[in-house]
Design a protein that fits this description.
about 10% strand, two-stranded antiparallel sheet, 6-stranded parallel sheet, alpha/beta
């Protein structure tokens, strides 16, 4: 029986990922290099400590760069991009609450970053357990964040469904024993997702009740076999 849902944050609740890529792509070009999307996607759902694009840039241009200066400029430019809640997210949170489900969040970002946006969007009150990189030794794709969220909710892996937008997130969720619904964003839509329970274009595609019924029944919705 499904008793909880656990959400990623960046790229899933709000598409913060696409603006960051555009900002760093431009800054890398100004340094005389390039930032291929496939290189950046290794960082999505995790941290630069797990997959560092600066290492790629420095190998490419053959010199060291001023990382702190580039990061400060990236943060400045990022603020010029609008960030909004993705379609269907609020509906899913409200439905989860109406269904009596526990709601968790597991993010590789820091608590201040996640908390800022949740307060800004008026979503902070929905979550019963919020786990960020400060709570674990290893972020995604390591399963520790999901294990911590499960512990905070007081449930077992088989009782929860994860919602993710990235390969690193999917791998973390499945490694922790959760079934995972993938909802890619603009940046991650082309990734080769495997092992997920269901893939949606957005949370507006299907009501949460139907998604959970699909997952609970092992991949059948309206008589159609899972193949997404």
């Amino acid at each position: 029986m499904i008793r909880a849902v656990i959400f990623d944050f960046d790229g899933l609740i709000a598409d913060t990922e696409t603006p960051w890529y555009l900002v760093y792509r431009d800054l890398f070009r100004e340094q005389g290099g390039e930032l291929p999307l496939e290189v950046w996607l290794k960082t999505v759902g995790t941290t630069f400590g797990e997959a560092d694009p600066f290492d790629y840039l420095e190998r490419l241009i053959g010199r060291k760069v001023d990382r702190p200066a580039i990061e400060r400029e990236a943060a400045r430019r990022y603020r010029n991009y609008p960030v909004a809640v993705r379609p269907g997210v609020v509906s899913y949170l409200r439905s989860a609450r109406a269904l009596g489900l526990k709601i968790g969040l597991a993010s590789s970002s820091d608590r201040a970053w996640v908390g800022h946006y949740l307060e800004r969007f008026g979503l902070a009150g929905f979550f019963d357990a919020l786990r960020t990189k400060e709570d674990v030794r290893r972020v995604k794709p390591d399963p520790e964040l999901y294990a911590a969220a499960l512990a905070g909710l007081g449930i077992e892996p088989g009782e929860a469904v994860a919602f993710e937008d990235s390969l690193n997130g999917l791998r973390a969720a499945t490694a922790a024993g959760l079934r995972c619904v993938v909802v890619p964003n603009e940046l991650t839509a082309g990734l080769p997702f495997e092992g997920h329970a269901l893939k949606l274009a957005s949370m507006a595609e299907l009501p949460l009740e139907e998604v959970l019924a699909f997952v609970q029944d092992g991949g059948r919705l309206g008589g159609e076999a899972a193949g997404s």
